[in-house]
What we know:
The protein is mostly beta strands. Helices cover 0% and strands 48% of the residues. The chain has no helices and eleven strands.
Amino acid sequence: QVQLVESGGGAVQAGGSLRLSCAASGYIYSRLCMGWFRQAPGKEREGVGHIDSSSNARYADSVMGRFTISRDNAKNTLDLQLNSLKPEDTAMYYCAADSTGFGHCSTAHLSPQWFNYWGQGTQVTVSS
Length: 128
């Protein structure tokens, strides 16, 4: 059983930055594909990006070049650095883990159905 707890959300003006963190427990962290997702009111949950056990990351086109995902396998943590934020980035951000692939991720991991553990989410609000 994987427990995930996000932190670091908040309100920021357009063009600003935030850093989100996710603390994982209950599993061998290096065997998890980790992902970030977001969901705005009235919209479906969408993938922001994911990172495998070797720290190879992949991003959605909408955040490429602005967001950076990193992980620390020694500390069981996952981070999301959000730069050049836009009002359309406003959403609840979720940390997710896939325990079935021994730490490997694929392009399919931009879809939420490939993840079997989720955090409670942290809100990011970007004002114009």
